[in-house]
Amino acid sequence: MGKRIPLPIPFGWFAVGFSADLKAGEVKPMKYFGRELVMFRTESGEAKVLDAFCPHLGAHLGYGGKVHGESIACPFHGWQFNGAGRCTAVPYANNMPPKVAGDKPAIYAYPTIERNQVIWTWYHPDRIEPTYDVHVVPEFGDDAWTPLEIMEWTINTSIQETAENAVDAPHFIYVHGTPDMPVGESSFEGTTRTSQYVMKTPAVSDDGNLDLDGGMVDVHLVTVSNGSGMGYQRFNGALEAVMMGLPVPIDENSMKLYFAFTQPKNLSQGKQFMAWGARMELKRQVESDMPIWENKVYLDSPTLCDGDGPIHQYRKWFRQFYAELAPAPIRAAG
Question: Do both 117 and 163 map to the same domain?
Fold first, then answer.
C-alpha cells in the first residue's frame, strides 16, 4: 500500500500561534508544513512568519535572532530582514549585495494575519496568494466571554483523517461509548462545511448539581469547517460555549491539534459545570481517537454502508485543498 497515509499537506490558513503568546520583540522557531520557519513580532506589534534560514550563510533566524524595529537580525552576522522577507541591512557591508538589494524578497514571507486571538499563516506549496479568508468568530473578541482555555496534542496522522470524524457518526458509539449516534445533517458549500447536530445530556441545576428530575436535555451543536485549518463549534441550549479546533500540519505524517474554548462570563454555576464537562469530554474523545488515527491506513476507496454518514462528500470537499489533486473548489449540497 505504500505510505500509511498517502495524502499531501493541504494548503490553507493555519494557526501557528496564539496572539497572547507572542510579545513585541519576541522570536520563535517553528516547524510546520515540512519546513523550518521563524515567527517574530515587530516592535510596532505585527506578527510575521518567514522561512527560517538566512540566505547569507544559512543560520536559523529562530535560534538567537533579534528583532530590530520592523526586522529580524540573523544571529550569525547581523543581516536584517523585514516581515516581507526583504533584506533591510547588512551592518558591516559598504554596499548591499546585489542578490538581496532592492524590493526583491531575500527570504520567503508567509501571508500572516491575526484574528480570533490567533496568529494565522497561509501555506500553499506553490506559494500562491490566499484564495479564501479566515472567518471571524465574534465570541473570541468579545469582552463578555472568558479568556481562552487551550488544549494541544501532537498526532501522527493527517488533517483529513482527524477532521473526517466530524461526519463519521457511528464511531461515537464504538470509540467514545455514547449511547446513540449523533443525529444531524451536513452541507458543503465552497470552502465551508457546516454540520448541525442535536445531542442529549443529563440535566444540571443552576447550582451545578445533577437535576434528577430533569431527565435528558438538548444541546444544539453547529460545527463549521472553514478551509483545511479552521473549525469552530457553537454549543447552545443546556450548554453554552464556543470552541475552535485548529489543526496544523507539521509534515505529511504528523500534525498539531489545538482546541481553544470560551464561554459567556455570566453563566450560572450549572452551565459553567456543563461547559467544563464538555471540555473534558472533548479531551477524552480526542485521546480515545488517537490510537485509531495513529495506526490506521487511509483507504482511497473504502467500503461504506448506508449508516456511515457523508464520508464521500466530505472527502470530495476536502480534496480541493490539495494543490496536487484538485485546486478547484467543489460545491455540493449535503
Answer: no
**90 lies in which domain range?**
12-123
Return the closest-CA partner of residue 322 out of 6, 1, 8: 8
Q: Note the pLDDT tens digit of each residue in 179-215.
A: 666 667 889 999 999 988 766 565 555 555 555 455 5
Q: Is 136 helix (H, G, I), strand (E, B) or coil?
A: coil
What's the CA gap between 311 and 285, in Å, rounded?
A: 19
Task: Evaluate whether residue 108 is within a structural domain.
Answer: yes
pLDDT computed for residue 181 by the predictor? 65
**Single-letter residue type at 154:** T
Q: What are phi and psi of 281, to 5 degrees?
A: -70, -40
The DSSP-derived string for 44-94 is: TS-EEEEESB-TTT--BTTTT-EEETTEEE-TTT--EEETTS-EEE-TT-S
What is the Cα 259 distance to its own chain's centre?
8
Q: Residue 214: which CATH number?
A: 3.90.380.10
The rounded percent of the chain whose pLDDT value lies above 90 is 70
Average pLDDT over residues 21-29: 98
**Is residue 229 included in any domain, yes or no?**
yes
Q: Are residues 230 and 168 in the same domain?
A: yes
Contact 54, 62 (CB under 8 A): no
At residue 204, the pLDDT reads 54
Tell me whether residue 154 is in a domain.
yes
Q: Are residues 187 and 303 in the same domain?
A: yes
Considering only CA atoms, which of 120, 104, 160 is closest in space to residue 326?
160
Query: Which tens digits make up the pLDDT trace of 99-112?
Result: 999 889 999 999 99
Same domain, yes or no: 108 and 150? no
Domain-terminating residue out of 123, 154, 173 = 123
